[in-house]
Amino acid sequence: MLNAILKLIISALVLYLVTRLYSGVSFEPGSTWVSIVIAALVMGVVNAIIRPILLLLSLPINVLTLGLFTLVVNALMLWLVAGLTALNVSGFGGAFVGAIILTVLNWLVDLVLPEKLER
Predict the structure, then answer these.
(1) Do residues 36 and 15 lie in contact, with contact meaning Cβ atoms separated by under 8 Å?
(2) Residues of the chain with pLDDT > 70: what percent?
């Protein structure tokens, strides 16, 4: 339970860091840390439920593009989270670049964190 809460807080920090690094993704003015944590929670739920379904449905185009279509799916997931939370994304291009930054930052966090947090 503690690992899940810690992973949620780290995900919220990474999402906040994306908003600081790229102006195409931001939180609504006056958003609190609770809004950021809720956005991270929604991102986790969307990535756990909807993303695998979309990846399965887009498997033929993903094979044809050698996996590059996964970047489009990631952008759609960020765009969906923005529609459900206090996160603002400046169109699909903003979601695309924001998703790339989010993916790279999450990859770096996974390199640094010990295995115990991943369970």
Answers:
(1) yes
(2) 96
Give the rounded percent of residues in the chain with a pLDDT score beyond 90: 85
Q: Where are the domains of the chain?
A: 2-117
* Tokens (6 digits) for 52: 């695998």
pLDDT in tens, 85-105: 999 999 999 999 999 999 999
pTM across the whole model: 0.89
Q: Are 72 and 98 in contact (CB under 8 A)?
A: no
